[in-house]
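Researcher: Last one for today. Full complex below.
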Amino acid sequence: MKTQNKLYLYLILSAVLLILIAVAALNTGVYDFGGNSAFGTLWQYIKGDPALSLSHKYVIWDVRAARIVMAILIGSMLAVSGTGLQGMFKNPLATGDLIGLTSGATLLAAIAIVLGGYFKHYLPETVQFSLVGIAAFTGAFLSMMLVYRISTSGGTTNVVMMLLTGVAITAIGFSVTGFLIYISKDEQLRDLTFWNLGSLAAATWMKNGILAVVLCISYTMILPQGKALNAMMLGEKDAQHLGVHVEILKKQIIVVTALMIGTCVAFSGTIGFVGLIVPYILRLLFKSDYVFILPLSAVCGSILLLTADTFSRSIVAPSELPIGILTALMGGPIFIAILVKSKKSLS
Amino acid sequence: MKKFILAASVLVAVYSCKKEEGTAKENTTESVSESPKSNNKIVTLNGGITEIVSALGYEKEIVGTDVTSTYPESLKATAKDLGHVRSMTIEPIMAVSPTLILASDKDINPELMGKIKSSGIKTEIFKQEFTVDGTKKLIADVAKALGNTDYQKLNDKIDADLKQIQPISKKPKVLFIYARGNMLMVAGKNTPMASLIQLAGGENAVNDFEDFKPLTPEAVVKANPDVLFFFTTGLQGAGGNEGALKMPGVAQTNAGKNKKIIAMDGGLVSAFGPRLGEAAVALNKLLVENTK
Amino acid sequence: MITAHQINYRHKDFHILKNIDISLEYGEFLAIVGPNGAGKSSLLSILANEVKSDNPDILFKNKPVHDWKISELSMHKAKFSQHNSNDIPLEVKDVVMMGRYPYFDAQPREEDYDASDRMMQETDVIHLKDREYNTLSGGEKQRVHLSRVMAQLQNPIAHKVIFLDEPLNNLDVKHQYKALEIIKNFTRKGNSAVVVLHDLNLAAQYADKVLLMKSGKAAAYGKPGEVFTAEHITDAYNFPCTICPHPIHHNPMIIFG
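Model: Here's the assembly. Have a good evening.
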């Protein structure tokens, strides 16, 4: 079967799966819609049915639907950023959280919140939001530059250095962020659990809007680069001989992944391992063919996070399990699997 | 470091403590109303507020509380426990279909606050001051939110209870220790415990800092309390009096040497509601006994 | 085809290449030989436009190399590099297909499949096409890359050039000769090849021109007969050798010792 058609087939299958899960997620939750099903309530909302009570409307649209959409957007971006990073560093362990990008983003976001606290009264909420987002992006970007400089020379990545730099950045980020939270009484800083384990509970349609814009911009730049990332596996010089603009590609990936990770961290805290799990599973099916795994990770990332979030809401209802715990639960064993498999090449 | 931060947030959530920011704020805020004034289903997200609402006679109308609302105990049967305000989400609150939400401005997760405000349900947020006057004001404000003017008897009760406090000749230094698992924190200034201790005739042993901070042996020795003060559950969990005496730095203090350890129910101590007088009197009794 | 004058290449303070002049004609097979560290790979890299040298542009088909778009260039020239242990988790046929990347956007076309199949046939790896690249032996991987690089230049454009850095490493004798035949056939069609070789005899047998390098300089440049003299070689390699005519095809035969 032709490559392109195969890709489309898988994309459609995954999209269908995503829709099914979204419907299931819509139906999950402790709230009772007074005898009506969740879906029916949503339909009422879409039709603009005046008989729909405000509370029902609120829960179905601003609480559940918003959260589901946020899970889809963030899951997708986290997965794609992981796949892109792995293409650039030519290693399956390169993900935003493992190489320290999310810690860097968290750190600068926390600093922005603390500093912003002093100007809080002079700035409207949208500006505050964007400041945090921009700070998170800058943090992710700076971490990325640091990791790249230290671990990559002449186009080959020293994997050990890459991961260790990530450890170092994570340590610094964690301690400084923790310190800021400790000395600051600002409620905006929330608590470390949010930053470390993430949460989608604060989903709003405005945030979703911003996420969607970031997603569109990033995907137009990165999704078509499947072939180029494949060529990178031959080495940067050889990729250049094949017509790939290597330097431009690298810059694009750096900026795009920093943008995606920064925005996701700013809105949902650190949700780890999505960028590790999704590409790993896709590689089992498609080898490292980025023409397939890059676009597919966009859909499968959503599936993963949405499923995890739905579980987090239902396992210990009415309370919630922090979503980072679930992703770590899935990601830990996969991390080990990757290590075992690449035992030879890493030593 | 991680565990401590988590425990700190849990602690702070559970016992609603916040440092004042210096500026006095208006007491009540939003009223986005979509329901009739007769408050049929109330959600109370703070221990003290729950007690006030119950004491004013509306206990049967409470359908949901936060985890710190442990009094009156009969609530366990009629109201749903919605969890900690720091980690609560909006859906469980909406699931009990409240017509009125009452909350304190302390520790509530700002995202949750945002979601509550945009839900369209009538919400009142009260500023809580840990003083006698602050408590009386809270009682008045909550009553007003319920459309009730008959709250004076609650304030009177507090005053009557407070009159039973006996003066203590030598003001004891009291150190409150929050013990949960391996985490030990002490209460500084501007905590409910510090206020209560003062009301009961004692002096808070730690005045160098505000809020709760981890226990360090040096700080304990420096503070040199005469009496150690715990929550009943906390002391139990730490291994009773023996466990308390083993805590770092304690053995060097007056309290440790004289084995002066007291404990009270957590809900009673931190609510700062109608039972404030009771709490102060109970603490006073314990202090008097332990400073003879 | 390619002209480069006075190539100088420095790395920090060390002169890797000094004042080298190269001019490559259409249909020419140029072999670059010399002892280790002579700068052969560096020269090849510079000619192939992998690195920038410190001096004026190399002219490729009479146009400065920097004026070419790299997407176009990739259809005119290709390079075979020595591959370090790069992990490529793909199947062999996908690796070879990468050589055709300059020609299609999303989907390989009929001609791309044809070109890659044909080249895999020639380098004798066609039976491995569905195997995972990482499971191959060193020599097999080498042949896969050779077919990739050759597939890259299967197109109707005239006068292409291929750069090969020690393509015969790890290959057994039969495949060594096969590879050289493929390259020679390529040059017979009006294309050029620049090949770094270790084996002087093979260079003598197949090359049209030879560049003998020593310590970053051109020690000798010209036809194999001119370059391969006992003096030149002994001097360059610092090792005694004798030349005698090859009994079968009369090219010089170099014997060390």
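The longest strand of chain A covers residues 152-153. Chain A has one domain: 3-346.
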